[in-house]
Amino acid sequence: MKAMVYYGEGDIRFEEREKPQLLAPTDVIIRMTKTTICGTDLGIWKGKNPEIEQAAKAKTGNFNGRILGHEGIGIVDEVGGAVTNFKKGDKVIISCVSRCGICENCQKQLYAHCRNGGGWILGYMIDGTQAEFVRTPFADNSLYLLPEGLSEDVAVLLSDALPTAHEIGVQYGNVQPGDSIAIVGAGPVGMGCVLTAQLYSPSSIIVIDMDDNRLAMARELGATHTINSARDDAVSRVLEITEGRGVDCAMEAVGVEATWDICQHVVKEGGHIANVGVHGKPVKFALEKLWIKNLTITTGLVNANTTGMLLKTCCSGKLPIDKLATHSFGFSELPKAYNVFKHAADEKAMKVMIDFQ
User: Fold this and answer.
1) Are 73 and 136 in contact (CB under 8 A)?
2) pTM of this prediction?
3) Nearest to residue 299, comparing CAs of 198, 204, 164, 201?
4) Which residues does the UniProt record annotate as the domain Enoyl reductase (ER) (predicted)?
5) Domains plus CATH for the chain?
């Protein structure tokens, strides 16, 4: 089968790989029908996650590449003997988080840190979804039946982007009715924050980015204010909009020091900073200014414990998330899709969809 394989910093290859096999009775093999590229995949390509190679070498002594991808939908092709909720032929949404459901952390709904080999492993610690077939562990707890009538482009975003935005941005940020919020970074997850924050009726949603095209989309999706931080002083503008107070919640949705810095300078006393972005380098934490402000600062990896609720909400038409799908490619064009997503600003790309059929 064909797959997009990561071999090290700056080295990904679209090549032939062996079809995966069932390794445990709780596994299923899925024939992929649609996947997408996440900013995290770009981060891996750029070398943000050297632990991928390190873990493989510690376990087997060598690293033979890792198939990328942790999002997608497909059709169940093979079923392990212990799987009871799914059968061959079922069309399913693959969660980016695999969970055993029985360990200490899973009992706390901390599925991202499953202690039995689950958590975020697809396209990271095990081969992922950017291939014609994928092995999904703990299938009964880690898949969702795809409802008839739901857009497949929306279904793919329920794998990761939407639940990550909702849980790590909006829920951890404790967004309440009437709150003012700032979302720094208008990529797919930042846009997911814009959409899911509106489920909680904030009074203002300020979106900050350097891409005018993305800012225009943010306004279309519900942002009340947008700021281009390449042209304007984002901190001054946020303070101006909030009459000098700052925001109740600042969400960092990029994963670099510049966006983190905006968040820690625009949050008001008693507010929340919700870090959603994936950071590959240290950032400066202005504790000498923040210690007195009674803030709550959260970090996290999505647990996917609200995916079921978001699935129902999407089926109701309450979240126009399909607007995030700006480009579509056939699976054979996956290298081209990576190039487009890598140059998202120039290509006016938000989320690129990869079709296998």
Assistant:
1) no
2) 0.95
3) 164
4) 8-354
5) 2-160+303-355 (3.90.180.10), 163-299 (3.40.50.720)
